[in-house]
Amino acid sequence: MKEEPIGGGITVMTSEEHRFGTDAFLLTLFSRYKEKDTAAEFGTGCGIIPLLMQKSRPPKRIYAVDIQENAVAQLRAGMAASGITEERIVPVCADLRTLWEGAPLGMCDLVLCNPPYQPPGSGFEAGNPSQRIARHGVFCTPEDVCSAAARLLRSGGRLCICGRPERLPDYICAMRQARTEPKRLRFVQKTAQDAPWLFLLEGRRDGNPFLQMEPPFLMYENGKPTKEAAGLYY
Q: Under CATH, domain 2-233 is a member of which superfamily?
């Protein structure tokens, strides 16, 4: 494992199997998490999102869930390196389709998920089993994510997801099937001239129909990072 400091005394442990990218920072920012929140993240990997949240006004507690034991071990190593206890982050090795004993059913204010971007059998599948699980929906379909989140969320709680734009219809449909109404949508673009490469979608448990479209998040302008993009990492 390799140490990756992310500021604020927080260190993430990365490996070939579990790393992080800009999408984790974007989803964390988009989620607008609050200090009073009880939260959960599905597919935590190296734990970048719950660890990133510890830099400023961390939520009351976040359950960091992954089906892979090696991912949960990496998160625990990052927590140890950062001096973070299980009072703040609760590592959970579990299948989100069945959740886990003692899961906070109907008690979460926020669920986040940076799911596998490709469905099983599409594109080139990595030979490494951990990478294949992380990149393809082997154990994690849009319906799986939204159904599991709905079981954890209180009425009015929020589900925040990021993904490739071509998968957006799948997640909108899956949210509505799980009584989680899409309420906020933002696209991420390299520049104003480029097509979006990522969507950020928020759904509200038992919400009324109304979707707010936010201005696109632009990564670069005139060849330089935008002010918003530069602020992602601080």
A: Vaccinia Virus protein VP39 (3.40.50.150)
